UniProtKB/TrEMBL annotation:
<comment type="similarity">
    <text>Belongs to the Fur family.</text>
</comment>
<keyword id="KW-0678">Repressor</keyword>
<keyword id="KW-0238">DNA-binding</keyword>
<dbReference type="GO" id="GO:0008270">
    <property type="term" value="F:zinc ion binding"/>
</dbReference>
<protein>
    <submittedName>
        <fullName>Transcriptional repressor</fullName>
    </submittedName>
</protein>
<dbReference type="InterPro" id="IPR002481">
    <property type="entry name" value="FUR"/>
</dbReference>
<dbReference type="InterPro" id="IPR036390">
    <property type="entry name" value="WH_DNA-bd_sf"/>
</dbReference>
<keyword id="KW-0804">Transcription</keyword>
<dbReference type="GO" id="GO:1900376">
    <property type="term" value="P:regulation of secondary metabolite biosynthetic process"/>
</dbReference>
<dbReference type="GO" id="GO:0003700">
    <property type="term" value="F:DNA-binding transcription factor activity"/>
</dbReference>
<keyword id="KW-0805">Transcription regulation</keyword>
<feature type="binding site">
    <location>
        <position position="95"/>
    </location>
    <ligand>
        <name>Zn(2+)</name>
    </ligand>
</feature>
<feature type="binding site">
    <location>
        <position position="137"/>
    </location>
    <ligand>
        <name>Zn(2+)</name>
    </ligand>
</feature>
<dbReference type="Pfam" id="PF01475">
    <property type="entry name" value="FUR"/>
</dbReference>
<feature type="binding site">
    <location>
        <position position="134"/>
    </location>
    <ligand>
        <name>Zn(2+)</name>
    </ligand>
</feature>
<keyword id="KW-0862">Zinc</keyword>
<dbReference type="InterPro" id="IPR043135">
    <property type="entry name" value="Fur_C"/>
</dbReference>
Amino acid sequence: MPTLTERLTTRGWRMTPQRRVISALFDVSASQHVHLTADDVLEQAVAVLPDISRATVYNTLGELVDAGELLAVSVGDRITRYDPNVHTEHHHLVCTGCGAIFDVPALPVPPPSPGGEAGGFVVEAAEVIYRGRCARCAGQDA
């Protein structure tokens, strides 16, 4: 699977130093299955490119979501996280202890349509969030 940086280059995106740093962060996070917040991206990007601005990070994240290259994931804590796993249908596990988010394969069960067939509702997407404790947090409880 091509990295985000490779996909953006193939799409003909102008790879400014700022975009290159941000996409490289997601190339690494994809291999580690990390879901970064905008503040995470800003903090890590500043370490590499000190003059990158908060506005550039937020604008670039918005552009990547609009282009379908990142998923904006909200798990109920009012903080958006960005998921580079856009090519595999999946749901998320959220640890109630540490807040870590993990990808899990989507179940092949279609969601019900409100009102049945007569309701005329067409489901276009579904998000499932499982909550529990990760192995590390569950081990701390023992």
